[in-house]
Amino acid sequence: MIAVDVGGTETKAALITGTPSHLDRRAQRRRPTRPTGDAVVEDVTALVDDLRAESPAPVDAIGLVVPGMVDERTGTGLYSANLDWRDYPFTERLEAATRTRTAFGHDVRAGGLAELRLGNAQDLRNAVIMPIGTGIAAALVIDNRVTDAPGEIGHVDVGHPDPCGCGQTGCVEARAGSAAIARRYAQRTNTEVKGAAEVAQRLRAGDPDASIVWQEAVDALARGILLVASLLGPEAVVLGGGLALAGPLLTDPLGRRLDELVTFQRRPELRLAALGDEAGCLGAALLAIDMVEET
Amino acid sequence: MIAVDVGGTETKAALITGTPSHLDRRAQRRRPTRPTGDAVVEDVTALVDDLRAESPAPVDAIGLVVPGMVDERTGTGLYSANLDWRDYPFTERLEAATRTRTAFGHDVRAGGLAELRLGNAQDLRNAVIMPIGTGIAAALVIDNRVTDAPGEIGHVDVGHPDPCGCGQTGCVEARAGSAAIARRYAQRTNTEVKGAAEVAQRLRAGDPDASIVWQEAVDALARGILLVASLLGPEAVVLGGGLALAGPLLTDPLGRRLDELVTFQRRPELRLAALGDEAGCLGAALLAIDMVEET
């Protein structure tokens, strides 16, 4: 099958063979993502045609995952501000363009599915799988299944005064998203940085401004995780995305802050995701496999 | 079968016959709840013996639900501060005492199950069923199933400065629980009131202090529901418990406050629960029916 992960800036596509427990990536393509649903379908169709030519067997299914708000059941991209679509019928349009059955899903939830089946959440019955990049959202695993809940943990109010692009104030993402971390450090120091990774580097070097910005990010994340612990009681939170590349620099202070905040809640274990930026594409492949197996 | 709902102050037991879609209550008993797990099992055993004598057929199962933190799968009452137990093996002890198979559950989640199967949530796939009494918790319905998530929406931080009995500050329950509403009105006016219902009465009569306390309760509830909307995206929130008896006096301002707060979230419909304080007992009966049918 062919798996496609439409990201905010880049679209990844891969020709995948193998079994659900051992996926094999045979060929891969990347290209920049263009806005609008029509442009995405056009570009994905080109990627599919290209990869199909390399396939030793007929391609029986496509797995497609996109960001934003998604309705898996109807195959619709409900809304993406960045990529400029609203109620766009992805499954219908891509099946028409490629004449190939398509399983459609949400990038974060599909990535969570991949961590659950193939990555660092395989032993968990209740978990939150939470990639932290420019944006923050989560796949919520309940009873060993990824729910279709929105999981917008980046946009819960954790009590700080900063506004967020979503129109609310106090959002986790407005302090702990990687873009927010870089922006807040730059504002504080009048020094441009390339991203949150550079703030992490400066933190390691003992920069006190980096330390404050990082600690505020950690506090916002801990408060968001605490809310989820009160409501859902996950065994573990699996951290992914660019910010999780900081490893213990993130998980150590986050664990300490959680220890301070928890009262009656089960304190979830903190783990790092295993699949990195391949999670979305692997999740798209799993969605396609599930679709084929169910029929 | 015999269904038992152990409440914080009163224990209700009923002899129930009929089918899962039409339960018939043949006889009923109530008695005050005494603390400790052993006392509860002793009292429940007496209630069961009493009701068994009225049963036309042998009693094949007991459904027992209790408050606090509960592990349904192991049949354990993990913790109740009020009723003074920790890791108490309810299923094991009640089965030994009654020689009758027992299905064990959590009072709020069982009540949610009853609303889902028999009450005002029958058409909902994703819902939050939220009784508001002295305490506030919720049954979380995802994909038409009541999850075993803790659902402690009463103890999420919604940003006000008041402390809560749980050790946190800003909890929904500390402003919107019925005991908190009565206490806050009394503190504000130096007038004792019998409970939240009396505050509601004074609100109807145009009392400005009642109006402020009520509006602060509504604001805390709305912010709690907003968090759940961001994370879980329920179609509806089904309000139950004593406070929901206020009807539109609660749901009208709560709906307006939600309309103001919502940005990207689906604004959940607000409904009133249908089963009142029978929900827990009916839920206990459903747990027993499910157990019998599964075997």
UniProtKB/TrEMBL annotation, chains A, B:
Pfam families cross-referenced by the UniProt entry: ROK
Source organism phylogeny: Bacteria, Bacillati, Actinomycetota, Actinomycetes, Pseudonocardiales
Disordered as annotated region, ranges: 18-37
InterPro entries, per database record: ATPase_NBD (IPR043129), ROK (IPR000600)
Name this polypeptide is given: ROK family protein
Family listed: Belongs to the ROK (NagC/XylR) family.
